[in-house]
Write a structure and sequence with these properties.
Chain B: GO terms for molecular function: oxidoreductase activity. The complex is a heterodimer of chains A (about 170) and B (about 300). By secondary structure, chain A is mainly alpha-helical. Chain A has helices at about 20, 35-40, 45-50, 55, 60-65, 75-80, 95-110, 115-120, 130-140, 155-174; strands at about 5, 10. Chain A has a two-stranded antiparallel sheet. In chain A, a hairpin with a 2-residue loop joins β1 and β2 (about 10). Chain A is globular and about 55 Å long. Classes of the chains: A mainly alpha (about 170), B alpha/beta (about 300). At the A-B interface, α5, α6, α7, α8 and α9 of A face α3, α4, α11 and α12 of B. Bound molecules: iron/sulfur cluster (2 copies). One iron/sulfur cluster binds next to α1 and α2 of chain A.
Chain lengths: ~170, ~300
């Protein structure tokens, strides 16, 4: 029996738990790495798509490097994320909002406009006053460019995004 | 003289500017030639791959094609995250003809003979470059105790990154020793610093960063040196934010701070550049105490 997620067979996992023991963000996860695999094995896809863990994973590959069964969990997690990146609510919403802002910036300019991200509320220091102080401190050290840096090939990059969007709309139709 | 294409990436244009600033100085001094990749685009980081796999590959491959004509000896990528993404895109088109065809269609360009991709550490840790650093050194770290921190994206997964070991790499340790410093043994060399959660999930990212700083201090390091510009910026900025968030009493009893360098800053200092030139004035946590210990000002 095999069930592939992004080319990885989830049945290869024998639940030793080494991945969870290696994971640096386990303390914040609602479902631990080895539990993600177990849920996939028993077909509980919805639970996995709805957890915060897949958005907390930093893709650090500590788990996959140590897994005795060669299971590449970050590769699986990337695929799970692709199913839900555009969702607004639910666990992991701040991480998704961040990724979506990065992608908007990349789509527009071809590069990421960090000062734009900073002022659009993605610093999450917990208060406006602290956000402002941080932006100032970064500017003072020349660590934020005031204006976006645009590339000449941005239309090509925009084309990549159009294909993605067309694909997603196509999926909805069927 | 060697000639590389150089890919800075968005972080080195912003929060991690001191990394490219010092690296380019050092490359110049050591006679390692480079040209910036013309019109490079963002590598997409962990965001593009979370939306669409081919998008991530497209973004990587466009950069590799832009670099191709310049990269006689390959493409140098100082940012560990960009390095990871460019390597991953390159592997993907080289091993999957179907993906290659799709990328060619979107880029309207044949995808072949992509240049080899190196991280800056992989270029600097080569025996002949280490020998050059030894020859050109005008100062020494004089036994400064350094925690060598590689982070996660640079060395893992091993199928992608070609480092000596995914959990105990040694390139930085060798460089620090050539510079006259002492690489302290410590256990978190390749643990994730949470840098890519620092915007979206500050509380989690802070725990990861603090764990690394505490461990380095516990192992008696006097500074940390990183090979990843995002780790450097994250560990430095985290200490600043922690300090400014604590109330008066907490700040007074605040935790010990530890300066965090990008490795080319230390090389630059030993080669005789001053602290301003290698970008130390951009740091949040001042480094003068550590430099005084090393007898460098
Ligand atoms: S380390 Fe590998 S085999 Fe063990 S529980 Fe995790 S995924 Fe399964
Ligand atoms: S890749 Fe993700 S799940 Fe695996 S150890 Fe790192 S953070 Fe945890």
């Amino acid at each position: 029996m095999s069930m592939l997620v992004n080319g990885m067979d989830v049945y290869a996992c024998y639940q030793c738990g080494k991945c969870s023991a290696s994971c640096p963000v386990y303390f914040a996860m609602d479902i631990l790495p080895h539990q993600i695999l177990r849920l996939l094995q028993i077909g509980e896809m919805d639970q996995v798509l709805d957890c915060e863990s897949i958005w907390l994973c930093t893709l650090c590959s500590a788990c996959s490097t140590r897994c005795p069964r060669g299971v590449d969990l970050p590769v699986i997690i990337e695929e799970l994320r692709r199913a839900g990146l555009r969702r607004v609510s639910g666990p992991g919403r701040s991480q998704r909002a961040f990724h979506n802002s990065v992608l908007r910036s990349l789509e527009r300019h071809g590069r990421v406009y960090k000062a734009g991200l900073a002022v659009s509320g993605h610093l999450s220091t917990g208060s406006r006053q602290r956000d402002a102080r941080l932006v100032l401190a970064l500017l003072k050290r020349g660590k934020l460019r005031m204006w976006p840096s645009r590339i000449r090939g941005r239309l090509v990059v925009r084309g990549f995004f159009q294909r993605v969007q067309a694909g997603q709309e196509g999926e909805k139709d069927v | 003289m060697s000639n590389y294409a150089f890919y800075p990436g968005c972080s080195l244009h912003n929060t991690a500017r001191e990394s490219s600033q010092s690296l380019l100085l050092v490359m110049d001094r050591l006679g390692i030639g480079y040209d910036e990749v013309p019109d490079w685009n963002c590598c997409g980081g962990t965001s593009a791959v979370s939306l669409d796999e081919q998008l991530a590959v497209n973004l990587a491959v466009r950069n590799l094609l832009q670099a191709k004509s310049l990269a006689g000896d390959g493409l140098v990528v100082p940012c560990a995250h960009c390095y990871h993404r460019l390597m991953s895109g390159k592997r993907r088109v080289e091993s999957d003809p179907d993906m290659r065809r799709r990328v060619e269609k979107e880029l309207r360009h044949p995808v072949e003979d992509l240049p080899p991709v190196y991280n800056a550490l992989q270029v600097m840790e080569r025996a002949e470059i280490l020998e050059k650093i030894r020859l050109y050194a005008v100062k020494s770290l004089s036994g400064l105790k350094v925690a060598c921190y590689y982070g996660c994206q640079l060395v893992r997964p091993p199928r992608l990154t070609n480092f000596d070991h995914p959990e105990n790499p040694t390139g930085l340790d060798r460089i620090v020793e050539i510079l006259g410093g002492e690489a302290v043994p410590w256990p978190l060399k390749t643990e994730c610093c949470g840098g890519n959660l620092s915007f979206a999930k500050r509380d989690v990212s802070e725990k990861l960063a603090q764990r690394i700083l505490d461990m380095a201090i516990e192992c008696e390091a006097e500074c940390i040196v990183t090979a990843c510009p995002i780790c450097q910026a994250n560990l430095d900025l985290h200490q600043f934010q922690l300090f400014h968030r604590s109330t008066g009493a907490e700040a007074a009893s605040a935790r010990k701070k530890i300066p965090v360098f990008f490795f080319s800053q230390l090389i630059g200092l030993v080669l005789g550049f001053d602290s301003h030139a290698v970008g130390l004035s951009r740091h949040f946590i001042p480094a003068w105490e550590a430099l005084a210990l090393a007898g460098i000002r």
